[in-house]
Amino acid sequence: MTTPWERFVLAARRGEPDQVPVALIVDSPWLPGYAGIDTRDYYLFPDQWLAINRGLLDRYPDVVWIPGWWIEYGMATEPSAFGAKPRFYADRPPSIEPVVSDLDFWVRAIKPANPREDGLMPLVVRLYEVLDERLRAEGLGVRMVCSRGPMTIASYLMGVMPLMEGLALDPDGVGHVLDVISESIIRWLQAQLDAVHAPEAIMVLDDLVGMVSKRHYQAIIEPHLRRIFDAFDGLIRVYHNDTPCPHLLSALAEANFDVFNFSHETDIAEVKQAMGHRVALMGNVAPLDLGVRGTPEQVYRAARECLDKAAPGGGMVLSLGGGVAPDTPPENIDALLRAARDWGQRP
């Protein structure tokens, strides 16, 4: 019997499995509320983290959870390795205070992060070592590890506006900062991969890339994204960017990732036409308007529409156009699964 993960792998390689896989990005914006616990407890107590994530497999055995068994502290892990201060809350993921808004400071001072010693990274690595061992004893394990992308991390260090102004006024300076951060990301992903027994995939999340022009993307950002994905050739490489960026679609397809999770605001047919069969598409039902606020039947219809447009020929993973948002009803996830099953059984 083909497993959901096996379907995902085949679709990620642009094949056509017997049924379109359903894959959903889940992390601490949704899971503590879904389980009815304090967000800080989700981070602090591994047994609660384990029970909640295991419960997803019991409740939704046909969903591929991306990355699955994700040890994360909201957006705080990577910025903390460069000195950013997180603030933790009971009912939501931590916020991050930018360190210094002056780009010149970062050009002079930034050094590659050491994932074994800096910020929250070593705690994540150690937890992966311990918890992957426990999961293996149950026939499970960590298949995918993650990092925020270079633009997103840079924005948490200096702020979005200083970073965007720097792209226009000091592109060489921004390029240097992104180069150091990209080296840190490669080290960070590798440290996580080394902590688990049988990894098969990585994911990089960088929404901020969608806010830049094609010229700036190709000149300043693409080399760093490509460098990161090139470093993990042979693994499945997932890129998440749910900022609408139709102007970048063709260029993004050259960054050497396998799966693209993108905004619901860009029609999936348009994305498929622009990217061709160079990457697999993971999307793109609206996560808020439908995933949270819609009825199961509305979600079902939107999912079927996505499948009709993009699933023929393979390379399709049904998902939301972003992560699972807080307050997403379980019934709407069931509707996605039902749509995938029904579409796969079409004449």
How would you summarize what this structure contains?
With 347 residues, the protein is α/β, with parallel strands linked by helices. It contains 15 helices and ten strands. Helix 7 runs parallel beside helix 10 and helix 8 crosses helix 9.
Strand order of the largest sheet: 5-6-7-8-9-10
Helix content: 40-55%
At the first level of CATH, what is the class?
A: Alpha Beta
Mean pLDDT: 96
Number of domains: 1
- Order of SSEs: HEHHHEHEEHHEHHHEHEHEHEHEH
Counted by DSSP, the helix tally is 15
Strand residue content: 5-15%
Main β-sheet: number of strands, strand sense, barrel status? 6 strands, parallel
Q: Give the termini distance in whole angstroms.
A: 21 Å
Number of strands: 10
Low-confidence stretches: none
- The gross shape turns out to be globular
Oligomerization state of this entry? Answer: single chain
What structural category arises from helix and sheet content? alpha/beta
Rg result: 19 Å
Please name the CATH architecture: Alpha-Beta Barrel
**CATH topology descriptor:** TIM Barrel
